[in-house]
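Q: Give me the 3D complex with WQD.
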Amino acid sequence: MAVKPAQTILVTGGAGFIGSHTCVELLLAGYEVVVVDNLANASTESLRRVEHITGRPLHFYEVDILDRPALEEVFAAHPRIYAVIHFAGLKAVGESASMPLRYYEVNVVGAQVLLQCMDAAGVKRLVFSSSAVVYGLPETSPVPETAATNPTNPYGRTKLFIEHIIRDHCAADRNWQAVMLRYFNPIGAHPSGEIGEDPRGVPNNLAPYVCQTILGLREKLRIFGGDYATADGTGVRDFIHVVDLAKSHLAALRRLEDAPGCLECNVGSGVGYSVLELVHAMEHVSGKKVRYEIAARRPGDLACVVADTRRAERELGWRAQHDLETMCRDMWRWQQKNPQGYS
Ligand code: NAD
Ligand code: WQD
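A: Here is the predicted complex, encoded as structure tokens.
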């Protein structure tokens, strides 16, 4: 029987947090992997470790997605690219409000350049990293994909605009297929402890801030709001293990094999965990106390945001496997082994 040649996947932003975990799963599943990353928020050390975990090599190009000639050269060097997974971009909600033009340029123009390069190379399958941020302030939780999209910050609007661009492009060319994954709150790390989240400067998100507080790198955690209408008064989010999230991209690639058109799909665990539950789970796995105080609510935050995951189960045949304890244990292993991240 003829052996099917391995499919080549181009991964933009593959050196980053979610990208590196996805590269591991792709390599373990037998795909050839080509990474494009300008290292704006990553280092090549993550990719070296991806190769170490999997025992397989990948191709890396230090290229900015805004650099069309350089991106075209990557496509030319790999003429058999099957699909692209597009992670590259800027992702800090607060920063996007202070430098919106930069966010529109990198995220929206970057995506447009990528699509044009894909078209020129005849590559018409895309998995895109969208975000639950496109829902803005959803009226119900769990949030279905049919909920209104009304992002409340420039970062969220870049994600929504890119979704519109991809949808319009798929409508214009019926040979195009795309899955747009709306991630909820990815946390955790690879169980090897070799790769994980390595935020630069003060973390914006809860989980890395808690880890750094335990390590003594931050004095104490401020819990934004203790008076929400939730079981313990703190905010509830849909935390999802980054390895589960990475595997959803492989499920999306499988769907691209035979389903035409464009699909948006929530990727969450479907379970709501409160901020205090996460803090206590981290205390449990680390055996250390988290110093915290209850502070004022953060403007723009909601009491509870949880994914309705039925579409992902139905359309991708995927669901998250890991619970909060596993997310925290794996995150803590990564932190302990790498208190300074990759540096
Ligand atoms: P990350 O910052 O770790 O990864 C993004 C990668 O893109 C980095 O390696 C960075 O160096 C690279 N990059 C940035 N600008 C680039 C450019 N112009 N050209 C080439 N490479 C560039 O972030 P992440 O957490 O891994 O997120 C990956 C994607 O998922 C992003 O698009 C983000 O918006 C989206 N997302 C993340 C979350 C989250 O909470 N982490 C949630 C929802 C959606
Ligand atoms: C989680 C909970 C905070 C920090 C954001 C983006 C979203 C997606 C994921 C990219 C909330 C509380 C936080 C702290 C706290 N990213 N918190 N003290 O806001 O749910 O989602 O990241 O697409 O788009 O909006 O995540 O980790 O910031 O907050 O009490 O120091 O933790 O109030 O209840 P969020 P988060």
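A quick observation: DSSP finds eleven helices and 14 strands in the chain.
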